[in-house]
Specification:
710 residues; alpha/beta; Rossmann fold; GMP Synthetase, Chain A, domain 3; Heme Oxygenase, Chain A; 9-stranded mixed β-sheet
């Protein structure tokens, strides 16, 4: 029997009413949890006609945990599908493991099986039988650095050995309220978080990702995460370094910390000493660890009673580990039974990680064997070391260090927020260089768009996919070596040279109030009406640019076709939003645009036909960049203030997620434009468009005008 389920039943017998699971207003005692697991297990056994793997394609919720343990209780092999997988990766996993069923969250109108207040449905999946090792309880898919995800087959006892060891080294007295932040399909959260907490008799709190700040995984709302942790009085949490950095950034702006927090375990990548020091300054008890999927998550961990922040802590009691002559970490008793497609796994496991023990027997990770950079001067450098120092700076959200066979290192830098300018990044890199020896300092750098699971440049836990990024940004990296310091792409020049005009736009009162949600329903519907009048011209403007594009610029036609396909029909979204908000959509359709809107659209047509059709991309830059800021900064605030439903914000909210990816595409496209005249035309168009877009907003009746008119 599963040790976790046995522990739940023991806790239910001893303290039946003790809270075991909470989330989305569902309170579940240990007795209730034991019953829910048994009830769900019976449902699975009665409805699944085969013991082939069952995939779990569900969002974070208490039902996920109940289902996970019910699958183990009924003897099924579960296959958690991470929410960050692309559809292609998801289909690969389903076929690779031979899943016979997929269980997902039910839609409101579907007949479903109830786990507490949560509905789930089970759907037959047509896949060929796959070879998996006997005794496999869970197949966890690691997104890896390249290619398709790989299925790691684990036994229930192998996973629970990790949880038992964690309880032994941390102590059951730390089992308070564990708050899940990472996706439950990630083994670290599933095994080290949920299983460990339940073994020790604590409470697992699991909320929907959007409600705790992760509506957009690549742009988390860290103040909301802080509020969620504080309201829950969470005592433990598991994070990756990138989320820790964002959490600290939010805490550092607030008067109070997380007083109830007793243990913040951090894994997934090396944690810089500077980041740990920032945590200490915020009185946040952070403990660094090390692990991998093949060992069912955790291998070593610092603990409250045994901690050296310079290391990843002591190896867990059940793990047998050594370091070979080349410095590679070797696990002699990994939890892995095998990979999908093979029946067994031959030990030991060569991890590919480089490490060393200190004099007190604590383990440190120095890098990846395959990632080591050998500079032109013959110095071997683990990029993870330098990257961790860069990530310790609050201004840097992501980074990747390069420099193979070059005299000096370079770095691709992703700012931690929209408000981080080049000067702040320069200062952050200078601080890092002051802490590093000469041979490991960053001499060349360039700013990039985020590396995310959605664009395929990061794994699910935020680790950059090094090989793919180096390939994606090869041109920029090569260019960076021409001069020291920052390499400014044309896209970056566009951002910099239009900064004054962008600021003018953001100072328009209507926009300032919208960002705070302080606008009336009349102002919002008036904005949507003007948006309709310029958005309905988006596709015609693109067609006009295509028609006027000279043959020498034919490489831009594919990009315009892609934009046309993406933008077609958006004006109807806007009209539907108007109707759903209580306005007259047909009246809006047939209304006359305000003067500012008319001038903006007319200027765009004139520039494309009279001057340079390539200039159109200056308008793209303005509209997509501004709509992203309005969507992410203002839509939620306006919705909350006006009390409107989600179907009143389909246009704005779609741009919050959509245009971040569009901007990455746009930045790459701008990298292909090398003609100085075309570059100047785009910059000129963008400058004018920021002013004209501001005039459009300024022409919309404002709250004060509406009040005076009334």
């Amino acid at each position: 029997m599963s040790a976790v389920i046995a522990a739940i039943e023991t806790h239910a017998h001893r303290t039946a009413d003790k809270l075991a699971l909470y989330g989305a207003d569902w309170e579940c005692s240990y007795e209730d949890l034991a019953k829910a697991i048994k009830h769900t297990s019976v449902w699975l056994s009665e409805n699944c006609d085969t013991k082939r793997p069952i995939a779990v394609d569900m969002a974070n919720s208490p039902a996920w945990l109940v289902l996970d343990l019910a699958l183990a209780s009924a003897g099924f092999t579960s296959v958690p599908l991470p929410p960050f997988f692309t559809e292609e990766q998801r289909q690969h996993a389903l076929e690779d493991c031979g899943a016979a069923w997929v269980i997902r969250d039910a839609n409101p109108d579907e007949e479903s099986f109830q786990i507490g207040p949560f509905g789930v449905v089970m759907i037959r999946n047509e896949a060929k039988v796959a070879i998996i090792p006997e005794g496999t309880a869970k197949i966890t898919y690691t997104s890896g650095s390249t290619g398709n995800p790989k299925g790691v087959c684990l036994s229930q006892s192998g996973m629970e050995a990790v949880s038992r060891s964690l309880v032994d080294v941390i102590g059951s007295d730390y089992a308070g309220t564990h708050f899940s932040v990472l996706p439950l399909s990630v083994l670290l959260e599933n095994v080290a978080g949920l299983y460990t907490t339940l073994l020790a008799g604590g409470c697992c709190q699991i909320e929907a990702a959007h409600s705790i700040g992760f509506a957009h995984s690549f742009m988390p709302d860290f103040p909301l995460l802080v509020t969620s942790l504080r309201n829950a009085r969470a005592s433990s949490v598991i994070l990756v370094p990138e989320i820790l950095g964002g959490l600290l950034g939010a805490l550092e702006t607030q008067e109070h910390g997380l007083e109830a927090m007793r243990l913040v375990a951090v894994g997934g990548a090396r944690v810089a000493p500077g980041l740990l020091q920032r945590a200490a300054d915020c009185a946040l008890p952070v403990f660094q660890g090390y692990g991998l999927s093949e060992v069912a998550s955790v291998v070593a961990l610092n603990t409250p009673g045994d901690c050296d922040p310079a290391t990843t802590g002591r190896v867990l009691p059940h793990v047998r580990l050594s370091i070979d002559a080349q410095g590679e970490i070797v696990i002699h008793n990994p939890a892995i039974l095998g990979y999908t497609g093979s029946a067994t796994f031959d030990t030991p496991l060569y991890t590919g990680d480089l490490g060393q023990f200190d004099d007190n027997g604590r383990l440190s990770i120095t890098g990846r064997k395959a990632n080591t950079i050998i500079t032109g001067f013959g110095r071997n450098i683990a990029p993870e070391w330098v990257e961790s120092e860069l990530l310790a700076e609050p201004q840097i959200g992501q980074c990747l260090v390069y420099g193979e066979a070059k005299p000096a290192l370079g770095a691709l830098i992703v700012p931690s927020g929209f408000n981080v300018d080049n000067a702040a990044l320069c200062a952050a890199i200078a601080r890092v260089n002051a802490r590093l020896p000469e041979y490991a300092r960053i001499k060349h750098w360039a700013k990039t768009m985020p590396f995310t699971p959605d664009n395929g440049l990061a794994t699910g836990n935020g680790r950059p996919k090094r090989i793919l990024i180096l390939k994606e940004y090869k041109k920029m990296i090569d260019s960076s070596y021409k001069t020291p310091g920052q390499t400014v792409s044309f896209f970056e020049r566009l951002v910099t040279e239009t900064a004054a005009e962008q600021q003018m736009l953001l100072q328009v009162p209507q926009i300032g109030d919208a960002m705070q949600g302080k606008i009336s329903l009349e102002t919002y519907t008036a904005y949507l009406t003007e948006a309709f009048h310029h958005v309905k011209h988006t596709v015609p403007l693109m067609e006009c640019a295509k028609a006027n594009m000279p043959a020498s610029k034919a490489y831009l036609l594919d990009a315009l076709d892609e934009y046309i396909e993406e933008e077609t029909g958006h004006e109807e979204w806007i009209l539907n939003d108007i109707g759903n908000a209580g306005g007259d959509k047909e009246a809006a359709r047939h209304s006359t645009p305000r003067f500012g809107t008319e001038m903006m659209v007319s200027y765009a047509y004139d520039t494309i036909t009279r001057l340079n059709p390539v200039a159109f991309f200056g308008m793209v830059f303005v509209l997509e960049g501004t709509s992203t800021q309005l969507a992410t900064g203002g839509a939620e605030a306006v919705q909350k203030n006006l009390g409107l439903a989600n179907n009143c914000f389909t246009y704005l909210k779609s741009h919050g997620a959509l245009d971040l990816e569009h901007m990455k595409f746009f930045a790459e496209l701008m990298g292909k434009i090398e003609d100085p005249e075309d570059q100047d035309a785009i910059v000129h168009m963008a400058k004018r468009m920021f002013v004209l877009f501001g005039d459009m907003f300024a022409g919309i009746p404002h709250n004060e005008e509406l009040e005076n008119a009334a």
